[in-house]
Amino acid sequence: MMGSHGLRRATEVAVLNANYMRKRLENHYKVLYLGAQGFVAHEFILDMRVFKKSTGIEAMDVAKRLQDYGFHAPTVSFPVSGCLMVEPTESEDKQELDRFCDALILIREEIQAIEDGEMDTRMNPLKMAPHPQKVVVSSKWDRPYTREEAAFPASFVTPENKMWPCVGRIDDIYGDTHLLCSCPPMETYEALKA
Question: What residue stretches are annotated with the Glycine dehydrogenase C-terminal domain (predicted)?
Answer without folding.
Answer: 10-131
